[in-house]
Amino acid sequence: xxxxxxxxxxxxxxxxxxxxxxxxxxxxxxxxxxxxxxxxxxxxxxxxxxxxxxxxxxxxxxxxxxxxxxxxxxxxxxxxxxxxxxxxxxxxxxxxxxxxxxxxxxxxxxxxxxxxxxxxxxxxxxxxxxxxxxxxxxxxxxxxxxxxxxxxxxxxxxxxxxxxxxxxxxxxxxxxxxxxxxxxxxxxxxxxxxxxxxxxxxxxxxxxxxxxxxxxxxxxxxxxxxxxxxxxxxxxxxxxxxxxxxxxxxxxxxxxxxxxxxxxxxxxxxxxxxxxxxxxxxxxxxxxxxxxxxxxxxxxxxxxxxxxxxxxxxxxxxxxxxxxxxxxxxxxxxxxxxxxxxxxxxxxxxxxxxxxxxxxxxxxxxxxxxxxxxxxxxxxxxxxxxxxxxxxxxxxxxxxx
Length: 401
Hints:
Blueprint: H1 2-10, E1 14-17, H2 37-47, E2 50-55, H3 64-74, E3 80-83, H4 86-94, E4 99-101, H5 110-118, E5 123-125, H6 132-142, E6 145-152, H7 164-169, E7 187-189, E8 194-195, E9 201-203, E10 208-210, E11 221-223, H8 228-233, E12 238-241, H9 248-267, H10 272-282, E13 290-291, E14 314-326, E15 331-336, E16 341-342, E17 346-351, E18 355-360, E19 364-366, E20 369-371, E21 373-374, E22 379-383, E23 392-398
Parallel strand pairs: 1-2, 2-3, 3-4, 4-5, 5-6, 6-12, 11-13
Antiparallel strand pairs: 6-11, 7-10, 8-9, 14-15, 14-23, 15-22, 16-21, 17-18, 17-23, 19-20
Helix pairs in contact: 1-9, 3-4, 5-6, 9-10
């Protein structure tokens, strides 16, 4: 719910989420439930924001009844279902539910998009393999709304349909259980011995070599901010940010950046300088090396990252919790449980109702005492936008330029 609120506050026009099962983030542990979906819908409708439910995993024969039950339950609360299985499309049609075709279905041409429209799809999310020129042609010829991914992690498998996690761990990426072995280091290891004509070993079967660069299966993250104006000009109806299973600060930062960029495109103030500034803002949160995906051509060596860890320029350190908020004065009282706070620190406050609030500590007080810092086991107050009791407070540490 904190991530949902962060997306709403940052300016999303629509939010997609999953319930327990049948989606591509089944193992994330952060899905909504049948109990929390009505509240999510209420918050979205209060803002005029669309809400989409993902039912985009492989569906097996014995699960069809449960999927239909979920569609019937969720239909009053959501504006569309995002699906990747023709059986689920049939169930949506049976129940009169709007559905969008997921990128998992690999739609990469206008004829396929027309076919999907004929089956009842209200929108098609293109395969991530499509170039910008191809997306423009599909928009012009398909006669159905087209959506594209614009930011986030990229998978080397065609439209994300990978078997590597299933082979290694028995956890299928196509069931939302991917353990992302592709993001790790790799070795080449000999598994047999070569011998000369006299039977003497030439080299040891245990020889192994680390692949360089070791992230040979790990694609760069997609960032479309520098060419968002060209995507708008292509006629694409919707831009999708890969944000599920991400932290609230990621959702808030990235959605805000794209909201700012899109508004600038629409009002004629978009510039390369603005795009560069927004890209730098997105670098403060989790990301790998950034790239342009496949919008400008098929993949090459430059599409792979040289680092397997996050390159975020900031990291959050847990400080404590809000124990009171004085609404008229705009003052938060915080119990400091871990990282100390000081005047001038950048902090974020996260909560299921609050979403993500960012502020810089302008002054610290404890009753009548003016402080320069406050350490673990103490409390302090500081001016702050509206937050709630129980919200978590984080010190934002800059770790690299």
